Amino acid sequence: MKVIYRVHAVRRMFERGITEAEVARVLSEGEEIAAYPDDTPYPSRLLLGWRGDHPLHVVAAYNEQDGEQIVITVYEPDPLLWEDGFRRRRQ
How many domains would you assign to the chain? Predict the structure, then answer.
């Protein structure tokens, strides 16, 4: 499957020292923790993966027609904003 990176995602990866290999691992092995089926132009999802012992969130959309995953953003979730396990935002 083809992976396309939005400019925003590339900037964030560069700023945060996150590699394409790390993002690819999250895309292939990560856990989907939220789905956004109504996002446009393509449905998207939030994935949780790990880089060593650090959590990594990847937001990606899926263009089924062209068989593309579009990486929208990538970040290490802030433990102050996320519950233990980084699967749910704190209320």
Answer: 1
